[in-house]
Amino acid sequence: MEAIWHTALAAAIAFAVTAGMGPLIIPLLTRLKFGQNIRDDGPKRHMAKAGTPTMGGVMIITGVMVATFIMAGSELKALTAVLVMIALAAIGFWDDYIKVVLKRSLGLRAREKLGLQLLIGLLFGLALIYYFDRGSQILIPFSGYSLDLMAGGYILFLIVVLVSSSNAVNLTDGLDGLAAGVTVFVSLAYAIIAWLTGHPEIMTFAGALCGACLAFLIYNHYPARVFMGDTGSMALGGAVAAMAALTGTELILILVGLVYVIETLSVVLQVISFQITRRRLFLMAPLHHHFELKGWSEQKVVRAFWLGGLASAVLGIISLKALW
User: Fold this and answer.
1) Which residues are within 8 A (CB) of 244 and not within 5 positions of it... i.e. 6 or more apart?
2) Long-range CB contacts (< 8 A, 24+ apart) of 290-297?
3) Residues of the chain falling short of pLDDT 50
4) Which of 70, 96, 313, 314 gives 20 to 30 Å between its CA and that of 197?
5) Where are the domains of the chain?
6) Model pTM score
7) 257 vs 253: CA distance, rounded Å
8) Do strands 137-139 and 146-148 pair parallel, antiparallel, or not at all (unpaired)?
9) 3-class SS shares of the chain: helix, strand, coil, % to 5
């Protein structure tokens, strides 16, 4: 019961901090002219979003940090999750700064971004294996069994998980409230998973992440008054990957974050299809834009993907039934 109380309180603190920052951060971003640039090749209705304040992810990050420090400040694993989140947020902030402030539309070069993500994944993996003595086992969904990758194999695997997660959430963040809403369900699922796997400190961190994302939706739901930018989406991806790694449930993340996975796969398949056949599988990728171009309203697409996020979160929890 104590872990549940700590988690609920962390969620409440993160919610209050994030919500309270809105009236301060949004006018500041507007005054600094940190406005969103809209791609010319995107859905035309998105052109109306041009200039909306971005880099609002600092609100989520601050809320999670404050709540975690208050409720789990002595827990090294929770603080490590915060550190991974901040490290990925720093990459996103740098990318946003180049695009928004320096007006270089493509931001960080792909190899620069990937190189930094690889470095963070390597350092995180080394810390897990040699400092936290985490071991190299990962849980196999629905089976109750673990697969031992050995130290070197696990570190390589974790790097893939971290890079994939941070970029997948970044791709998902394309509509008002989409990434933040899906992450609410992912973090809720991980609060339960952390409880099932005996990691109360990660349960607290997951609660903080859930509360911060819920508060951010106050300002980010359609029509959005602020966007999280790469600062926020990369941070969320790092936070999600950290929760999976610290609970030993990296493979379960594929189920819990199935919306992220599908969004990423839609981009990969689109590129492969065009390279091979010169035809596109979707009207536009990531997948949420395909449904927009099919005539769905933005709100309908987001609600559908939120339902998908809820269903996949439940599926991920069910996959751990052997631990119940």
Assistant:
1) 161, 165, 190, 250, 252, 253
2) 290/266, 292/43, 292/45, 292/175, 293/43
3) none
4) 70
5) 26-61+75-198+224-323
6) 0.95
7) 6
8) antiparallel
9) 75, 0, 25
